[in-house]
Amino acid sequence: MKHPVFRYLYIFYSFVFLLHTINVFMENENINYIVGIFAILMLFVSFPLASRLFKILGGSFLLIGGYLFFTTGQSLHVIPSILTSNLSLLTLLAMLPWMNSIVRSGRFDRNLNLLMKGNVTDLGKLYPRSSLTTHILAAFLNLSAATISQDVLKNTLSSFSKEIRNSFITTASLRGYSLALLWSPLEIMVAVSLFTTGVDYVTVLPWLVFIAVVAYLLDSVFGRLYYKKYAFESMAVNHQPKINKKAIARKMVQFVCALIVFLTLVVLIGNLFELNFILTVTIIIFPFAFIWSLLLKRRKSFWTIGWNNWKAKTNTMQNFIVLFIGLSLFSTSLGDTSFLAVIEKPLSFVTSYPMLVLLLIQVIFVLLSMFGVHPIATVGILTGIITPLLDFMNPVSITLVLITGSVATFTVGTYGLLVTLTAMGTQQSPYRITIRNMPFAIGLWIVGTLVAYLLL
């Protein structure tokens, strides 16, 4: 696994992703079959390099999916065609680092950090600002936004006790981060949920933004009241960073305008060419980021940061490759069996209590995340339940609870990547982080469920 050839996996992965994307437009069955064979090779190459958790998850989907496939009586030669169903999601994942790179090369992250630290007298005032800053960063930077925010907060709160510092970082950064992923077109869970229900992004976007705003305001009130008793000492005034308000305001306007333009392009191009959400975002990311770098006159730094970032991220996609390809076999085989008809009957008894159904979906996400199950895998597990629900419940409502339920796991998933990184960075137990953020997760369930219920 340490052989130099593994440094060049990004070439192989990229070739498969490009071929798949081209065939989305061509819709050629022969090319799709070839891509499926490459997907099998990707699986064999990636499985030894995946983490233990994803080996278990991906292996489980492959075993169960394989068993279900054999019960359908289909010929083995159709398997490659089945394994391509989730390659669009993998292609999107491979393109996300380019958006991360333009934000870094444009130094938007640095300016947002200055905004976070300037002119605060107590932690109550710092809380909503920290949460909002992480929120804005996460819209483009995803996971790195949380680590950047946490590093700045550790510096800013160095005069406070470790317990107060950890509590503040755990709540402000993780909650602000998760609320951005609730509506971001670059968040993979949004893409997976839309892919599962077939709902358009533009249809759910206003409701996702509404849920995010309500949750942010409620959490900001909590933070303002809970942390206002912790005041900065007088010496902190001397450590206030000197900021150029006009320059930062200009950068912020550029950042927000870029986000609005990106969202507008996703909606317009998707509707104009009748492309699905995942494909539209995948195609737009690179040209949008490149043109943005030209306008900012940061082309060289964009290429330098972007190329290295993209290679590193694409080279280490093994976890998602194992999970998504295994999930392809499982979900496709499940749809070809009589299992869906079996579960429809008990579901008919629950349809009289739609609020209970919506709430249970979100509870399942969080409960499984506490045992290390990734929300993408949870969607796969719920596939059999979700499909019949779409026949008698509003798909928009199902989409909303899938997204809010999966996003809530980022703050309480004991073995999740974000909670684990936060635990390592703050030197505290991940279980403590889970307990601190559980009220927020429950609040997000309630808000998401109420909105979804009203749309039924």
Question: What does it look like?
Answer:
- This protein is mainly α.
- The protein has one domain (87-454).
- The chain has 22 helices and no strands.
- The longest helix has 28 residues, at 245-272.
- 46% of the residues are buried.
- The mean pLDDT is 82.
Helix and strand arrangement:
Layout (H helix, E strand, L loop, with lengths): L8 H18 L2 H18 L5 H21 L6 H4 L4 H19 L2 H10 L5 H19 L1 H14 L5 H20 L6 H10 L3 H27 L7 H4 L6 H28 L4 H20 L2 H17 L2 H18 L3 H12 L3 H16 L5 H18 L2 H18 L4 H10 L3 H25 L2
Protein name: Citrate transporter
Organism: Halalkalibacter krulwichiae
Keywords: Membrane, Transmembrane, Transmembrane helix
Supply the key terms.
456 residues, mainly alpha, 22 helices
> What integer value in Å does the Rg equal?
22 Å
Total number of helices: 22
**What's the N-to-C terminus distance?**
50 Å
What is the oligomeric state here? single chain
The residue fraction in helices comes out at: over 70%
**Poorly predicted sequence stretches spanning 5 or more consecutive residues:** none
Main sheet: strands, sense, barrel? none
Percentage of residues in DSSP E strands: under 5%
The strand count comes to 0
What string gives the helices and strands in order?
HHHHHHHHHHHHHHHHHHHHHH
Mean pLDDT over the residues: 82
* Shape designation: globular
Q: Which structural class matches the secondary elements?
A: mainly alpha
Tell me the count of domains.
1
